Amino acid sequence: MSSLQLKGRRWMELSLEEQRVYVMRLLDALEVTDRDKRLKVARAILYLAQGVFDECDTEADVLYWSRHNVFLLYDMGIFTALLELLSMEIDNNQACSSAVRKPAISLADSTELRVLLSIMYLMVETIRVETEGDSPERKAAREAFKTELGSPLYNGEPFALLLFTMVTKFCSMNAPHFPMKKVLLLLWKTILFTLGGFEELQEMKVRMREQLNLSPLPEDSIKVVRQMRAASPPASAMELIEQQQQQKRGRRSRRPLVKQDSLDTYNERDPFKNDDARDEEDDPEDVDSGIEGEVDPLDRDVIIQPPPPPPLRPPTERVSFPRGLPWAPKVREKDIEHFLETSRNKFIGFTLGKCQSESPLLIGQGEEEVEETPAEILYLGMLPSLSQYVIALLKLLLAAAPTSKAKTDSINILADVLPEEMPITVLQSMKLGIDVNRHKEIIVKAISALLLLLLKHFKLNHIYQFEYVAQHLVFANCIPLILKFFNQNIMSYISAKNSICALDFPHCVVHEMPELTAESLEAGDSNQFCWRNLFSCINLLRILNKITKWKHSRTMMLVVFKSAPILKRALKVKQAMMQLYVLKLLKIQTKYLGRQWRKSNMKTMSAIYQKVRHRLNDDWAYGNDIDARPWDFQAEECALRECIEKFNTRRYDKNQNSDFTPVDNCLQSVLGQRVDLPEDFHYSYEMWLEREVFSQPIQWEGLLQAQ
User: Compositional bias (Basic residues) at which positions (predicted)?
Assistant: First the structure.
């Protein structure tokens, strides 16, 4: 098929074979030395990956052809060619040095990088998502691509390691023109594809427990959280004073109650109240019922009135809710041993001491066999520079946080959003402001999801891999960083409207562009909240939970940093999953906050009791048996670090120290090993036998008696 026969014809009119011929021509043209020609070809490939939108009439058509073309591009080897070009751009020292010398970086400095990353992102995300109509060929391509991305096929390391390198290079100021938003999005989706999401993680947990003959999980945590209902937030001191004043004036403080509004029923009403001036929550009497799921409808300052929707549930469904707590109680073996030891000492004055159970040294049979899972391959690749990766991600998170103030020495994360020429009109300034805020929100979303995925998968793969990443997060001040993130008007952040619906893809390419005005930009869209920001907040809370759980010194850090009022304000977001992880963080520190705090926050304590899992001998609500250990952060972290280093040395260090080398205690295995002897040994081995064996008296009777 000649190129002249394809010229002037629509892409949809070409047969599959003709499309393959055209893609092959583009693949050949990517290898030209002219940079401008390469960029033109890359833009053509991007147009195909975006669904040849100029030939489509509806958004569904764009999505169909985008999926069709992406699988075609992968089948023709486009991803590998793009990877080579991306590596060239990363190693382009001339572009890096030029960007370093520039006083201001703009979109023009990363044009080719952004085109390459956009194509790769579309390919990873499109192939990752499985649809019902996928053919067996597409399913096979998905599994092949997943294996390819997670295997060390790219210069001996997984694809994610190349993206991590871009992140660290950007944060070290060596490549300030790298488009970090696109890099982080691609990195997150690559990890999500190769390791699996939360549902795949749950399935992996179930399979591993079956393999290890462990009891099945008492419940599916994902399903339990989805069935939870949000609670009304506790009252603030301002509201208590206001209610007392209302009672003095003789005003009624009790009003009819209706079913609670929350993010879970967002189509019904505006789920938020205006809290710009002060913390506006429910009246104290209403809060008491609000924990059960009710709220006063008259407390809302701004209500957007949509058409009345059909009822979400039948009125009688409320009485059919299951009674009892949502979680099955749990207990650790360590807790049982501590309970029994305390009981023995209390009632009979006898303790077993530290030798409650024998702890034999596990002696390996030769080298340890490690299963080459995607998580294991990724950890092995990240291990040499893991601290740099963690610090770089937290630097980006800090720069993108809404509470951060611009500093002259901070990294510039806006290099891939600022135009060459700054806006000169009010409309252009408003549009740029929305773009900048959206840009930061996406960065926070990608980093929070990425860190949570790494923690969960490494914890399932090996606990010390999880502890290593978690400890680096703690050492890099992740705990105060997340608390600083939540120390803002969290309701405003959740309900932010930093998006322009008319410019969303693929809507903007198949519909006529409406005239944008300052009023329309200020009004924003019709959504009452931003799923993107809610997703980020939940991820950050889960990360904070994971790095502080069962760690006394880290829990005390939450107390020292005065996280309780910050977390309590976050309860105003009426979304069940977010409230659950806030309550978990409050639960682990309630015993250290004092009796007066618990007495003044009984509504919060009640919500913890109702929504958080209970554990045997966990005196969280009373603090009578408060932990008497001194808060020695360095000692606890150093002890943990020692265990982690032993694990890493034993498992990954090729030049192992003899202290960590597994001992082979199998006689046949030892005798069968090949021993390297010096070259002159065969000349003198008879003398060695005579001196070391035959001339040495052996007391055979003594050996028999010893047996």
Answer: 248-257
Contact 451, 473 (CB under 8 A): yes
Output the pLDDT for position 316: 40
Instruction: Please state, as a whole number, how many other Cβ atoms lie within 10 Å of the Cβ of residue 205.
Output: 17
Place of tokens 């991820």: 539
Structure tokens given for 30:
């990517």
Helix/strand/coil (H/E/C) assignment for every residue in 151-181: CCCECCECHHHHHHHHHHHHHCCCCCCCCHH
| Residue 687 CB contacts under 8 Å (≥ 6 apart), including other chains | none
Cis check: omega of the bond before 506, within 30 degrees of 0: yes
Question: In the numeric block, which tokens belong to residue 168?
Answer: 């660290």
As given in the structure block, the two tokens for residue 232 are 């009304």
- Of 584, 619, 547, the C-alpha closest to 335 is 619
pLDDT for the residue numbered 520:
76
- SS3 of 126, please? helix
CA distance 220 to 95: 50
Distance separating alpha carbons of residues 11 and 56, to the nearest angstrom: 10
Q: How far apart are CA 218 and CA 328, in angstroms?
A: 6
Looking at residue 254, what is its pLDDT? 47
Count of C-beta atoms within a 10 Å radius of residue 377: 18
The whole-number pLDDT of residue 193 equals 97
Alpha-carbon distance of 428 to 196, in angstroms, equals: 40
Contact between 569 and 492 under an 8 Å Cβ cutoff? The reply is no
Of 631, 421, 653, 454, whose CA–CA distance to 543 is shortest?
454
Nearest to 207 by CA among 194, 217, 196: 217
Place of tokens 């065969």: 682
Closest CA to 121 of 89, 165, 159: 159
Q: Residue 658 to residues 114, 578, 641: CA-CA distances in angstroms?
A: 49, 48, 19
> Residue 321: its pLDDT value, please?
39
pLDDT at residue 309, rounded to an integer:
46
Q: Following CA atoms 362, 368, 373, 375 in sequence, which dihedral angle do they give, to the nearest 10 degrees?
A: 60
Query: SS3 for 295?
Result: strand
In this structure, what DSSP letter does residue 66 have?
A: H
Distance CA 232, CA 273 (A): 12
Distance CA 674, CA 677 (A): 9
Contacts of 242-248 with CB under 8 Å at 24 or more apart are: 243/283, 243/284, 243/285
Q: Going from the first residue of the chain to its last (707 residues), give the mean pLDDT of each consecutive group of 10, the final group possibly shorter.
A: 58 93 94 91 95 92 95 95 93 85 86 95 96 92 95 86 95 92 97 95 92 88 86 67 66 44 43 37 33 32 38 42 72 81 80 57 56 93 95 95 72 88 86 92 97 97 97 96 95 89 86 80 76 96 96 92 95 93 95 90 92 85 62 85 93 67 67 73 76 77 64
**126 closest CA partner among 78, 198, 173, 172:** 78
Residue 374, both tokens: 């995607």
pTM of full prediction above 0.70: yes
Between strands 258-259 and 294-295, the pairing is: antiparallel
Provide the CA 259 distance to its chain's centre, in angstroms.
33
Q: Is the four-CA dihedral 523, 526, 532, 533 of positive or negative sign?
A: positive
Fill in the amino acid letter for 349: G
